[in-house]
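A quick aside before the break. I want you to see a complete sequence-to-structure record at least once, exactly as it would be stored in a machine-readable document. Don't worry about memorizing anything.
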Amino acid sequence: MAIKVHPTAFVDEGASVGDFTAIWHFCHVESGAVIGENNNLGQNCYVGRTGVVGNGCRLGNSVSVWSHVELEDFVFCAPFMVFTHIAFPRAAVSRRQVFVKTRVGTGATLGANCTVVPGVAVGRGAFVGAGATLTRDCPDWALLIGSPARQVGWVSAYGDKIPLPLSGSGEWVCPVTEDRYVLADDQLTRIPGPEDILAYVPGRELQRVTARA
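That is the input. The structure line, written in tokens, reads:
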């Protein structure tokens, strides 16, 4: 298997790690964790015993994917972003039996130093800005900033802001990928172009899209 694990990292017996994944300095992957293919775990990352990392994800330095946190494919977690896994923690009380699931949709980005509270569903392709605090579910392709996070726009799968209002109707075509985005009320739907950059092909080393200059 084409897996790269730095000598300072610990991958416990019983963890599942897919091909073409790199796990760097001082990481810890617990038994029972599931990590897919073509992922990159930066320095000092942690994946808990029921944590799930999909395929093609990037975890920046010091990101912890706790138990009950599930990342779908192509999720980007910037350095020092935080998943919290207990809503009302107390040192004198164990709440391990009441953890709730946090799910992050395919293609989403979680900016540096942002915080995602327990039980939140992050929409497909959503973009949570640096330092934001996400306290509730967010729509697909939404751009969110602030604390608590609020939606201020839309972002494409390629990573460009979409010039459409937060609600109403309209369409926009990405000039790079030819994806078409259709706004109906407050929901944005993506219709992939000829080559879907978020369609993961298993079993082979991932060649990521190179951004235009």
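Two observations worth writing down. The first strand starts at residue 4 and ends at 5. The chain is about 0% helix and 35% strand. We'll return to this after the break.
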